[in-house]
Amino acid sequence: MQLPIIHKGWFADFTAADVPEDIIFAFFDGDFYESIADSFRVCGGKFHEKAIIIVDDYANEALPGAARAVDKWLANNRQYTSRTESSLAIIHIL
User: Fold this and answer.
1) Topology of domain 23-93, CATH
2) What is this structure's pTM?
């Protein structure tokens, strides 16, 4: 197995070229709407058909932007479903 490549920087500075194809697992921990939305923007279209995406702070009332970004992405990607455990959104393909 190839070791991962770690890119240091802000979510907004990354492009789709910075992430691999067929992402099977992603953990987004950006706290705010922009960070989570940027993560989906960069990774969108690169998720494997059996991908699991976990978004931290989805149910954290102090950080409502995370939930707003997830809900907006799910509304445009209806092939995915989600459930909430603790404060995490766990997203997978139907």
Assistant:
1) Translation Initiation Factor IF3 (3.30.110)
2) 0.87
